[in-house]
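2024-03-11 09:14:02 INFO worker-7 job=invfold-0412 stage=load source=structure_tokens
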């Protein structure tokens, strides 16, 4: 049972009666009671009545005692809400017997397309792709667990003019040589070498131009080489996904090229709808509401002056396919904030063309940058963008070293396993625990610390509970009567009851820092409980009850971290 919701549902009609219209009771956790409602204060001005009077009137209407809740007016007009021990115990017992920890499967399943990761062929994944991959995968996991039909789309950058130069470079190296070079995982090296030739050599440039034409014209040999580039890159990306422990697979690649056959139709339809306007030799759409700094309307270029289609046309075609063919009603795009305007314009054009209409809606889940310790965009010492694999390997090495230092009797294999779960978990958690629209600083010490709002802290609390259960020698029966008396025990119980509300909120907002923050509060409530309430040394009845609370905490931490894509080792 979602306690916050229950209280809100009980107070809402009472507020409605007093205010003469719907009111959100604004229930939240309280430092003085279990919960409090702040709505009377906001209403006071509107109704021209003292807030305490309103609060008292609301309480005269509210039905609360059948659910074991007592209420009182407090301070300037808060309503403090306290749940009776027995009622609280009852609700927590409900969680213990529920494999889903109180989180219902959705009553309104949707088809959700999650567009994420989307690196570019023959280019290293950079930290922006890391964020997209981590956030997108959390969205996939959460929505899937809630019972939605989730389609992962890895919108690989696998088409466009750079392929002329890349394929020419491949031709120079020969298939075998190029395959070898690419299989070393040095995509940037390959790209750079092609670029250098392109910049220095006029003949190479000309060959590259012709190669683009051959590629677009479907020339067999050119296509074979292009496929080789794509396949080698995909293989490499899959090794990164494996290291990163994300659910993306081989089946999820659906690169830009997959929409090639749909592009002409998209542009023709826009033309037929009268939405196309020529501008500088290109075909553009000028969606309403977008203007540049000079106040001029902004174009979305759907066909370039050379007749080619680009990134915007591909996104329009993809969107139409996702709604029309896949039947998606929720379209998510996990892409950095610099592309905010691009997506806003694509969505606006799609709406105007009638390709995106309710119930279908599109959301750009934008995110900020990862910064180095100097507060600037993360760069390698040579000034290049940081190679993602290097960063992940460093995380794993650091976490493995720390595990070994803390626990010298660990054998190498166990340490490596813990190091991987903790290192990768730390990277993901650092990302997911900050508001995604903000930049954040990559700080190894902080990310890997065993205290603070970090993955290792949560993993540590989990492992601590598991070790306690091992020492207890039994697991508590889910129907063990719960005894909640001490404040720390009650506080943990209230926290446990909050899981469903947080998951429900994140389902809507996809702001994972709310889930991370919740897990951190839960772990902290557990530590406070564990400090004050002995478990294994408690008398029988209490021991079982506390063991059950602890195990419920472990299950919730595990499930919550799992939704974030983070592992929970049994020992640390
Ligand atoms: N490949 C692009 C990049 O690296 C991201 C693609 C995002 N998805 C999309 N549908 N446009 O910036």
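2024-03-11 09:14:09 INFO worker-7 stage=emit residues=572
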């Amino acid at each position: 049972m979602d306690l916050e919701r229950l209280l809100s549902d009980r107070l809402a009609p009472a507020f409605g009666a007093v205010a003469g219209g719907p009111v959100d009771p604004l229930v939240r956790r309280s430092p003085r009671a279990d919960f409090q409602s702040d709505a009377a204060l906001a209403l006071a001005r509107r109704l021209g009545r003292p807030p305490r009077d309103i609060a008292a009137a609301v309480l005269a209407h509210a039905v609360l005692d059948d659910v074991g809740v007592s209420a009182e007016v407090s301070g300037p007009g808060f309503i403090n809400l306290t749940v009776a021990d027995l009622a609280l115990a009852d609700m927590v017992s409900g969680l213990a017997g529920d494999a889903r920890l109180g989180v219902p499967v959705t009553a309104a399943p949707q088809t959700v397309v999650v567009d994420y990761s989307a690196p570019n062929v023959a280019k290293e994944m950079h930290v922006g792709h890391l964020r997209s991959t981590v956030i997108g995968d959390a969205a996939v996991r959460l929505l899937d667990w809630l019972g939605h039909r989730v389609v992962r789309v890895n919108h690989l950058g696998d088409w466009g003019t750079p392929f002329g130069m890349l394929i020419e470079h491949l031709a120079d190296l020969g298939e075998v040589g190029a395959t070898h070079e690419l299989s070393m995982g040095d995509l940037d090296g390959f790209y750079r070498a092609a670029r250098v030739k392109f910049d220095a050599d006029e003949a190479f440039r000309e060959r590259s131009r012709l190669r683009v034409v051959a590629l677009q014209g479907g020339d067999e040999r050119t296509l074979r080489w292009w496929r080789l580039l794509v396949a080698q890159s995909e293989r490499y990306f899959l090794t990164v996904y494996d290291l990163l422990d994300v659910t993306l697979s081989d089946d999820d690649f659906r690169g830009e090229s997959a929409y090639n056959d749909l592009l002409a139709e998209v542009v023709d339809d826009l033309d037929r709808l009268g939405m196309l306007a020529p501008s500088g030799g290109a075909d553009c759409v000028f969606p309403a509401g977008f203007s540049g700094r000079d106040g001029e309307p902004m174009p979305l270029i759907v066909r370039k002056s050379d007749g080619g289609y680009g990134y915007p046309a591909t996104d329009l075609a993809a969107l139409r396919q996702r709604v029309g063919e896949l039947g998606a009603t929720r379209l998510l795009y996990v892409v950095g904030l610099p592309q905010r305007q691009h997506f806003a314009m694509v969505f606006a054009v799609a709406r105007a063309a009638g390709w995106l209409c309710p119930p279908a809606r599109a959301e750009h889940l934008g995110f900020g940058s990862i910064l180095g310790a100097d507060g600037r965009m993360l760069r390698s010492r040579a000034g290049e963008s940081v190679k993602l694999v290097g960063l992940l390997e460093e995380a794993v090495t650091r976490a493995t070293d720390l595990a070994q230092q803390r626990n010298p009797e660990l054998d190498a294999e166990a340490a490596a396993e813990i190091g991987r779960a903790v290192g990768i978990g730390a990277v993901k958690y650092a990302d997911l625990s900050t508001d995604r629209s903000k930049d954040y600083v990559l700080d190894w010490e902080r990310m890997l610390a065993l205290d603070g709002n970090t993955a290792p802290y949560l993993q540590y609390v989990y492992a601590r509970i598991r070790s306690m259960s091992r020492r207890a020698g039994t697991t508590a029966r889910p129907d063990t009567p719960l005894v909640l008396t001490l404040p720390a025990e009650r506080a943990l119980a209230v926290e446990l009851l909050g899981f469903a509300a947080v998951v429900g909120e994140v389902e809507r907002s996809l702001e994972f820092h709310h889930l991370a923050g919740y897990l951190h509060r839960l772990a902290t409530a557990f530590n406070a409980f564990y400090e004050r309430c002995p478990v294994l040394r408690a008398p029988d009845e209490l021991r079982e009850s506390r063991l059950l609370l602890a195990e419920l905490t472990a299950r919730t931490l595990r499930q919550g971290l799992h939704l974030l894509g983070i592992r929970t080792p049994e020992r640390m």
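2024-03-11 09:14:09 INFO worker-7 stage=report msg="The first strand starts at residue 27 and ends at 29."
2024-03-11 09:14:10 INFO worker-7 job finished
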